[in-house]
From TrEMBL:
Feature: compositional bias, Polar residues: 40-60, 307-321
Protein name: ABC transporter substrate-binding protein
GO BP field: amino acid transport
InterPro entries, A to Z: BCAA_transport, Leu-bd, Peripla_BP_I
Record organism: Roseospira marina
Length: 548
C-alpha cells in the first residue's frame, strides 16, 4: 500500500519523552552465519534451502543473553511522510521503560519513504546487530525489507495492514480489515441482520472488505451476500443514486460500506432516502468510520462498526472515574476523513478539553457585566490517549521488551523469538488484546460499537482472552499503567467482565493472501486473478452475485 491508504490516520501530538538506551549489543552466532552466507553469494539472495538451514540454526542455537536486546525502528523521517515517522519515533520512545541489561537498545533508521531507502535502513539495522526490527510503516517498504531480513533470520513487526506482505518472519501489527469484517458480520447476523449487500467506491481497502465479506459468508450459514457493488470514485451522482436504489430494493438487512469521509456520508444518505434504515437495516463499517464526521451525520445514526478503541464515556461508566481527555497522553485524537488507511495530519481532530468556569461565584456587580460567550459544547471523544498508529508503535516496543526479559528466564535462551511472538494465548498491550499467528497475521479483540449523536455506544465489549488458550501476557507493567490514567481506566473497565470465548474461530484470517493491488481509488477494473471470484463488471461497476 502507499502512504495514503496503508495505515491509521493520525495527528501529530505534542507529547514527548526522551529515552536513554544502553549501548551494549547482543550478537547471535547463527545471525553471523546468515550474514556470511549472504556475503559469500556476492549479495545475491540465498537459496530457500540455505536460508531455511541458517534460520533453523539460529532458532536452535542456545543464546546466553549478555545485554539489552538490539531493536531497530524503521520509519520515514524524510519525504512526505516524515511527520508520521517522527510521531512513531516519539511513541516508541515513550514506551521504552527498560533500557538496562534486560531491556532493549532502540535505534532509529530513516527509510526515506521509499523501497530503496527501506532496504538501506534494513542493511544498516543488520550492520548494527539488530535482533528485532520494528516497521516499516507501509507495505511497499515492508515488501522491500522482507527478503533482506529473512536472509539474516531477523523478524520484523510491521505497522502495515496489508496481509499480502505477511510471512517469512514479517508480522503485521496493523488492524486487518478482513478480521474486522468477519467479527462485524457475525455480530450482525446474531442480531438478525444476515442479508448483506456491499457498496463502496472502489479502493484496494474496499476490495479487501468485499472479498472478506464474500469469503466469510460463503464459509458458513450465518448470513448471505445478496450483492456487492464497487464503483469508481468519479462515478456521477445519478449513477450512484440508481445503484443504491437497486441495492435497497433487494431487501437487505445489513449494508457494508467500507469507506469514510464524503463517500460514506453520501452513500448513507442515499440508503436513508430509500428507507434502508434502522432497526430493519443496519449500516456496517470497520474502524474507518472512527472519525468525528460520522457522528455528526444523521443518516449514520444507528450504524454499527468495530474498533479496538474503547469509548471514554463507556470507560467512565464502568469505572466511575473521569478519564483525562487533555494533556500529552490524554488527547482524544480522532481519525481523519480517510479513516485508518490515511497517514495525513488531522488538524481538526476533537479533543476532550474542558472550557473551564464562567465566574458564577464572583460577587454581583452594580452594573451588569458583559455577557461572556457561551461555552462550546464538549467535542465528542472517540477514544482517550494516543491514536491507533501511535499505540501500534508502543505495542511493538512492549513486545520487544517482553522478549528481552523472557530470554533471561531459565531455559528461555534457547526459545526462538518467533515462539514468543506467536504465543497462542496472545498479549494485552496498549491496543488491548491481540496475538500474532505463524503466518504473520494478527487477531485482535474488537469492540462492536454503535454510532450515536453523543458518540460511540458500546454494544459488545472486546473479549479479555482467547478462550482456553490461557491468560494473555501483560506487556505493560502495573507501574506504567498507573502513570497513564487513560490506560488504567481501560484496563479496569474491561477486567471485571467475564472472559468471553475470544475472537471467534471464524474471525481467524485464512492463510491465503488477498489481492495486493495498490491502495487508493481506481478507475478501471482490477486485473483478473487466477481464480473466478464470481464478480463481473457491468459498465463501470463491479457486481458480485449472491453466495447462495
Amino acid at each position: 500500500m502507499d502512504g495514503r491508504r496503508d495505515m491509521a490516520g493520525i495527528r501529530r501530538t505534542g507529547w514527548t519523552r526522551t529515552v536513554r538506551s544502553a549501548a551494549a549489543a547482543l550478537t547471535a552466532s547463527a545471525l553471523l552465519t546468515a550474514c556470511v552466507t549472504a556475503q559469500n553469494t556476492g549479495g545475491e539472495s540465498a537459496t530457500p534451502s540455505g536460508r531455511s538451514e541458517a534460520n533453523a540454526q539460529r532458532a536452535q542455537t542456545p543464546v546466553r543473553p549478555t545485554g539489552p536486546l538490539n531493536v531497530a525502528l524503521l520509519v520515514p523521517l524524510s519525504g512526505p511522510q516524515a511527520d508520521t515517522g517522527q510521531t512513531l519515533v516519539t511513541a516508541a520512545r515513550t514506551a521504552v521503560t527498560d533500557a538496562g541489561p534486560q531491556g532493549i537498545h532502540l535505534t532509529v533508521h530513516d527509510t526515506h519513504g521509499t523501497p530503496e531507502g527501506a532496504r538501506a535502513a534494513a542493511d544498516a539495522a543488520l550492520a548494527g546487530k539488530a535482533d528485532l526490527v520494528l516497521g516499516p510503516l507501509f507495505s511497499v517498504a515492508a515488501q522491500a525489507v522482507k527478503p533482506v531480513l529473512a536472509r539474516a533470520g531477523v523478524p520484523a513487526l510491521s505497522f502495515s495492514n496489508n496481509r499480502a506482505v505477511a510471512g517469512e518472519g514479517l508480522y503485521l501489527l496493523g488492524h486487518l480489515p478482513g478480521q474486522q469484517t468477519a467479527a462485524l458480520l457475525d455480530y450482525a447476523a446474531a442480531q438478525g441482520h444476515g442479508r448483506v449487500v456491499v457498496a463502496s467506491p472502489d479502493t484496494s481497502y474496499a476490495r479487501m472488505v468485499a472479498q472478506a465479506t464474500r469469503e466469510h459468508l460463503a464459509r458458513g450459514t450465518r448470513g448471505q451476500l445478496v450483492d456487492s457493488r464497487l464503483f469508481p470514485a468519479d462515478l456521477d451522482y445519478d449513477s450512484q443514486v440508481d445503484l443504491v436504489k437497486e441495492l435497497a430494493s433487494m431487501d437487505p438487512t445489513a449494508v457494508v460500506i467500507p469507506t469514510a469521509g464524503i463517500g460514506l456520508v453520501g452513500l448513507s444518505a442515499l440508503f436513508e432516502y430509500y428507507d434502508a434504515t434502522p432497526p430493519k437495516v443496519r449500516l456496517l463499517g470497520t474502524d474507518l468510520w472512527e472519525w468525528p464526521g460520522a457522528f455528526a451525520e444523521g443518516s449514520l445514526q444507528g450504524g454499527w462498526y468495530v474498533s479496538t478503541s474503547t469509548p471514554p464515556a463507556w470507560t467512565e461508566q464502568q469505572t466511575g472515574a473521569r478519564v483525562s481527555g487533555s494533556g500529552p497522553m490524554g488527547t482524544a485524537d480522532a481519525m481523519d476523513a480517510d479513516g485508518h488507511d490515511s497517514a495525513e495530519t488531522d488538524d481538526g481532530a476533537a479533543t476532550g478539553s474542558d472550557t473551564g468556569g464562567n465566574g458564577e461565584d464572583a460577587a454581583p456587580a452594580a452594573t451588569a457585566p458583559e455577557p461572556e460567550p457561551e461555552s462550546e459544547p464538549e467535542a465528542i471523544r472517540l477514544f482517550a490517549g494516543p491514536g491507533k498508529l501511535e499505540r501500534l508503535a508502543m505495542d511493538a516496543v512492549a513486545l520487544a521488551q517482553g522478549w528481552a526479559k523472557a530470554r533471561y528466564q531459565v531455559g528461555a535462551g534457547s526459545d526462538p523469538i518467533t515462539r514468543f511472538l506467536t504465543d497462542p494465548a496472545g498479549f494485552r498491550g496498549y491496543t488491548g488484546l491481540f496475538r500474532l499467528t505463524a503466518s504473520g497475521l494478527n487477531e485482535r479483540g474488537l469492540h462492536v460499537l454503535e454510532i450515536t449523536e453523543d458518540g460511540p455506544d458500546m454494544l459488545r465489549p472486546a473479549p479479555v482472552s482467547f478462550g482456553m488458550r490461557g491468560a494473555p501476557t501483560r506487556l505493560v507493567g502495573p507501574d506504567v499503567v498507573a502513570r497513564l490514567p487513560w490506560l488504567a481506566a481501560e484496563y479496569e473497565a474491561l477486567e471485571p467482565l467475564d472472559p468471553m470465548t475470544g475472537p471467534t474461530a471464524s474471525s481467524t484470517a485464512p492463510a491465503t493472501a488477498p489481492p495486493s493491488a495498490s491502495p487508493g481509488p481506481v478507475a478501471a477494473p482490477a486485473p483478473v486473478s487466477g481464480t473466478d471470484t464470481g464478480c463481473r463488471w457491468r459498465g463501470r461497476v463491479q457486481v458480485c452475485g449472491p453466495t447462495s
